[in-house]
Known about the structure:
By secondary structure, the protein is mostly helical. Helices cover 67% and strands 2% of the residues. It contains nine helices and two strands.
Amino acid sequence: MAQESPRNSAAEIPVTSNGQLEDSHEHNFDKDLKRSLPVGLGLSETKITSHGFDGTKEGVVEAGPFPGSSASPKSSIISPSNAAASRLAGQGGRTQQKSGPVVLADEVKNPAMEKLELVRKWSLNTYKCTRQIISEKLGRGSRTVDLELEAQIDILRDNKKKYENILKLAQTLSTQLFQMVHTQRQLGDAFADLSLKSLELHEEFGYNADTQKLLAKNGETLLGAINFFIASVNTLVNKTIEDTLLTVKQYESARIEYDAYRTDLEELNLGPRDANTLPKIEQSQQLFQVHKEKYDKMRNDVSVKLKFLEENKVKVLHNQLVLFHNAIAAYFAGNQKQLEQTLKQFHIKLKTPGADAPSWLEEQ
């Protein structure tokens, strides 16, 4: 056969009774052994052990230093690449490697160390901001001020307090009007009942019953207009303005961080410049630039939101104030048609008493 079995070159190595190789076959054995050994394992790292002719194994090749060699022992551990490790893992169930264990590098980051680093950065940032706030309150630190923007923010906060007061008073008026309408409805029912039972005062009780019922009906219409006014102002104050003030708080936090890192950079620049301080100055300059960009972005966001808020506020309050005035004027003038026309103008639908109550089928 043109191709021989791989074990023939090792099986045909003659050995003496004491385990020594014959000199005549030494050269051929070296070449065969180099071909059969794994890549990276030299001849000086092997030795031949014979257990005699009566043993169960002959000519066993073992990894280790060759007797008489001055070379130091080398490790038989192989660190393959990722692709090779995948192929070796797939063949692990079929063959058993004899060259030693496979050591794979662990490149996965430790989550605990990442969390610890985040906590460290947060603590350092909190310390710098707290120091800046205390310095400003004590009058020792400087702060960045945008006079125009700060004035607009102060006006917004003052207006919010005034709108909240209007909202509170309107809610009080709605509550009192509801109680009055409820009382007028009960009074009208009482007059109507007496009109049926008192024949001599039938007409008088009837007139009063009709008047109180009409007042109660007009009161319900006015109540619907006032409640619509309250809902619109409440949306403006507690949602639109509150959302803008939330952006203002973020802007103020960014301003404090910007001033804190600006102060830190100024202190480093005033100190000596040597091999130890230059890396710190460079790092502080980078952090300062990051927070400066954040501060500029938040300042632009606040300016845009204040502009849109002002436009929306004027539009909403104009319609609601017109509604409130027309409804109140028509109610106290006794103009029922004008009152109903006002509600139609602003697309307000009155809720019928008892309309929200579930039916007996739904209660089941």
